[in-house]
Design goal:
Structural class: alpha/beta
Number of domains: 2
Bound molecules: NADP nicotinamide-adenine-dinucleotide phosphate
Shape: elongated
């Protein structure tokens, strides 16, 4: 599919609105296969969904979406859409699905669902004989303990109470339990599945473009340049995952029929190497101040809560073992490329580069402000002069 055909596919309005995202989502490295395979994407118009849709279109799949037609309705206007509310009790939403889709066979179904394990269960009960390969976006939060490094896919998962009997009951559980429940349900209902246990997704998009809390602090801070404060934890490891790399792997698993559970993230990476990628992506800092952690804490810059990617505990938190995915064909693109996309997304959302970190008008705190940073650097310089 060439660019013109794709723009036609998603509709003119969408093309104008998300021109930059499309550039960011150009998957030229993907092998093009024209196999007429059908993929049903449950969701598709939120955070990672659009990347999945674009990737499967590029991969030669016939794409259908299933959602309520509420979120980002300008996206993929010309793709077939099954309108369905999966949050309706007793499968009422699924039962309303147009008859023309009832007997259809989907080579691939990708479920981006997070909210209700019962919704996963209902869908599989209703459609499991119509699915060739089911993919589910899960999370490393399914592991019971993060108390050691290099947790593999066969480590114990969160112990589960009784399976929720209704959508509402399922929603009462915390995120990690809902993901664990959903996985458990998948394993009991279907054989041909792939589960992606993702870790801290990063993308051109932000999870909620209207919420400052979801903006990527470090890429934006380096993009702004000047004198930058850094916690002196150069060899502290960090880990997350680039959405594009993960989605390429979903396509790969679909094409190769690769089944099972996979931890999905980049290799544990020293913070200083991440900083090096930030510099390469922006060429911005005039000076970096590596400041002692205790001093930062004394001045209110609390690890993780205020300073992202500085999380000394628990031991396993940035150390998940991703070898199984790598052996199955997962390739994480360079962090520099991921960071550049994050910055492009920020520039698109904040063309005036006027985001204000620190305390927000509603009392929430997102990292720290430029003024706070200046003040702490000044104090640190003074301290070290004496
Ligand atoms: N690890 C991380 O950092 C991280 C970050 C973000 C997301 N995630 C995970 O990634 C997964 C994907 O989330 P996403 O938002 O990016 O997915 P998405 O597929 O891009 O967006 C969610 C989709 O679900 C649809 N939807 C919402 N409520 C629905 C309902 N009741 N019935 C049917 N469809 C409904 C929405 O459309 P309508 O509103 O129109 O129905 C939307 O298209 C989630 O499982 C989440 O846990 C992980």
């Amino acid at each position: 599919m060439n660019k013109r055909q794709f723009i036609k596919t998603i509709g003119t309005t969408a093309a104008l609105t998300i021109l930059n995202p499309l550039t960011a989502l150009s998957f030229s490295e993907q092998p093009k296969i024209s196999n007429d395979k059908k993929v049903l994407i449950l969701g598709g118009r939120g955070f990672i969904g659009p990347t999945i849709v674009k990737s499967f279109l590029d991969g030669g799949y016939e794409v259908t979406l299933l959602n309520r037609n509420k979120t980002n309705t300008h996206l993929f206007e010309n793709l077939p859409l099954i309108i369905c509310d999966r949050e309706k009790e007793n499968k009422a939403g699924l039962k309303e699905i147009d008859k023309k889709y009832k007997d259809k066979f989907w080579d691939v179904v990708i479920d981006t669902w997070q909210k209700s394990p019962k919704a996963v269960s209902d869908f599989l009960e209703e459609f499991k004989d119509s699915i060739g390969h089911y993919h589910y976006i899960s999370s490393v939060s399914v592991y019971d303990k993060w108390d050691k490094k290099f947790i593999k896919e066969d480590e114990p998962l969160n112990p589960l109470p009784e399976l929720p009997k209704s959508i509402a009951e399922g929603m009462e559980h915390r995120y990690a339990l809902r993901k664990t429940f959903a996985e458990e349900i998948i394993r009991t209902r279907i054989d041909n599945y792939t589960i992606y246990r993702s870790h801290g997704m990063r993308d051109y998009r932000s999870v909620d473009p209207n919420n400052i809390i979801d903006e990527p602090f470090w890429p934006i801070r380096f993009y702004r340049g000047g004198e930058i404060l850094l916690p002196d934890v150069k060899n502290h490891h960090i880990q997350a995952v680039d959405v594009r790399s993960m989605v390429s792997f979903i396509l790969h698993c679909s094409n190769k029929k690769t089944f099972g559970e996979f931890n999905i993230a980049f290799q544990p990476t020293p913070f200083k190497d991440y900083v090096s990628s930030l510099i390469h992506a922006t060429q911005k800092p005039t000076r970096m101040h590596w400041i002692d952690g205790e001093f930062l804490i004394e001045n209110g810059l609390i690890p993780y809560k205020i300073v992202p990617f500085w999380k000394p505990h628990p031991e396993g938190s940035y150390y998940f073992n991703v070898q199984k995915a790598i052996e199955a064909g997962f390739v994480h693109r360079p962090l520099v490329d991921m960071i550049k996309d994050q910055i492009e997304g920020y520039k698109h959302r904040y063309p005036k580069n006027d985001i204000k970190f620190g305390e927000q008008p509603d009392g929430r705190v997102k990292c720290y402000s430029l003024d706070q940073e200046k003040e702490i650097i000044k104090k640190w310089k003074l301290k070290n002069r004496n």
